[in-house]
Amino acid sequence: MPPKYPALVELARALGDSSLDLVVLAEGNVSERTGESTFAVKASGRSMANADERDMVELSMDPLLALLDDASADDATVAAALAEAKMKPDAPMPSVETLLHLVCQQLDNVRFVAHTHPVDVNALLCSVQPTALVDGTLFPDQVVVLGSHQLLVPYADPGLPLARIARQLIKDHVATHRTNPKVIYLQNHGMFALGQSANEAFNITVMARKVARVTLGTLAAGGPAYLSDHAAERIDSREDEVARRAELLRARL
Ligand SMILES: [Zn+2]
In the chain, how many domains are there? Predict the structure, then answer.
């Protein structure tokens, strides 16, 4: 039998590369939309660097979607719904962040989602200036890969509370900017990258890491000098940059 979820496994391993400083130990997780109402997500406690298909759990979305709207849901209800959602009852338990993956997998043009805790991104998200990551755009390639606007979500308890807050803020973001965010920064926690392909989710993650490193550098040099909104919007719509974005989507990890 051919291996299952080859692109998802490749994405997990690429993100787990220790030289990138994106995750350590069992940190981080990845997901892939596998059907109309199914998705696969990394199992809880498994390492990204050594992931294989046995570390991925396929889930039905319906029991989990019901949870997001159930005001009376507690930790026991969440655990029961995660167990019920498993397509194979003997599969390992999915990651605690499965519900936020689900929220992201509901969005248009999203098929692969990567959650990491990059050191440089967290240096800002755990600082007194987390908004420095989303207040503006620093350089053209940032726009090509991350789009013009990224979303910052205030700290919330991982699991159901975080998924609910993020869902509302994504809705607000789409209403304001008429497009999904490609990056969701979680204050005092990490980031989610939302891609159409495994390659896009990887590219978004490593570009966000670079943006964080540059931002930290600017803070040491007197503060960020953002591009004007006009310049950022122009990069976002220029034909050669749109072509470059399409090329990046096609490229292999
Ligand atoms: Zn996390």
Answer: 1
Range of the domain at 87: 6-250
Angle at the Cα of 192 (from 190 to 193), degrees rounded to 5?
135
Q: Are strands 190-195 and 183-186 parallel, antiparallel or unpaired?
A: antiparallel
CB 82 within 8 A of CB 98: yes
Question: Looking at the domain assignment, is residue 202 inside a domain?
Answer: yes
Q: Domain with 80 in it: what CATH number?
A: 3.40.225.10
Q: How far is the CA of 28 from the centre of ligand 1 (A)?
A: 5
Residue 242 lies in a domain: yes
Ligand 1 centroid to residue 92 C-alpha, Å:
18
Per-position pLDDT tens, the chain of length 253: 778 999 999 999 999 999 999 999 989 999 999 999 999 999 999 999 999 999 999 999 999 998 998 888 888 899 999 999 999 989 999 988 999 999 999 998 999 999 999 999 999 999 999 999 999 999 999 999 999 899 999 999 988 999 999 999 999 999 999 999 999 999 999 999 999 999 999 999 999 999 999 999 999 999 999 998 888 888 777 777 677 777 776 666 6
Span from the CA of 227 to the centroid of ligand 1 (angstroms): 30
Gap between the Cα atoms of 55 and 193, Å rounded = 20
The pocket of ion ligand 1, defined by CB under 5 A, consists of 190
pTM for the structure as a whole: 0.93
Residue (of 12, 183, 199, 206) closest to 119 by Cα position: 206
Domain assignment of residue 1, yes or no:
no
Evaluate whether residue 197 is within a structural domain. Answer: yes
